[in-house]
Please model this.
Amino acid sequence: MRGFFVLLLFYGVGVAGAKWLHIPIPGNMLGMLLLAGCLLTGMVKVETVEKAASFFMRHMLLFFIPILIGVTAYFPLLKGQMSPILFALLLGPPLVMIVTGWIVQWGSSRLVKKDTEIEPIHKQEGA
Amino acid sequence: MTVAAILVTILGYAGAKRLQARHASFHPLLVSTCLVWLIWWGISSDWETYKTGGEWISFWLGPATVALAVPLTKQIRSLLPIWRPVLLGVAIGCGTTLFSGWLVMWLAGGSDQLIRSILTKSVTTPFAVELTKTVGGIPELAAAFTATTGLIGAVIARPFLKMARITDDWAIGMAIGTSSHAIGTASLSGKSEAQAAASSVAMILSGIITTFYLIPF
Model:
């Protein structure tokens, strides 16, 4: 239950902070960044929020059903624009997959080679 | 009636989860949305009332997004050795989504409001909805575009990445998380935990990075 309140608190602080400080970042993201900071510095223990967090993430779908239902009201707006929309939606994922996939694969393969050279140090760190 | 809207939504969600357990090919997002729509249409079809009740549910998207801090901080240590290519890859990937979406809609003469609603299509829904509000788009449309993008990404990911010779676990995860957020990530879990972990980090990073891209707008 405590984790539940911690998440709500950080959400509240994020929303209020973004509004009052006029930061152009959504409140929920500011809340997430603040919590991430607190988790990394140990100000909030992972154990405190872990259970509540996995509950929320497991049921994330439920929370946006009402938003998706609302889309029917905007169907008239899509009229005559369906083909460019579909084209944009279909184009996006493969394009991004190639770009991101290749960059990460190229970059990490170079780093992995370096890693094998310094493997002894790496193993010590891991232990 | 507000309470009825909340109950119907939860019922539809629970029903879709049940169905998914039996037929894996039914995506719970589509099934639950259709179920809830049908039930509400049958008993009331007063969509204004549904909206009031629905807001009680979508409110929880806020704390649920904050919860993403947990997987982010858990994975951040394993990310450190390769943070440069990861950040670069996700940043350019996000830029690609924004630019290609904008370009296609602009060339086709799409309305300003529509363009502003399609920009966040690759970002995980809770961020997409809020970001779309800040750039002046329509959150409901953004949610629908985001869901569609996720479904497309999840379907094409395996064969497409294989064709593009992307085989590294980190690269696969990052490619899927950046392009098709939580829906793509979910399609990975149970198959490769390493890829799913990379994908969940990528979707959070792409939310953060896209926010910074969109600040000037």
Remarks:
- The CA atoms of residues 14 and 169 of chain B lie 33 Å apart.
- The radius of gyration of chain B is 18 Å.
- Chain B touches chain A through 107 residues (CB under 8 Å).
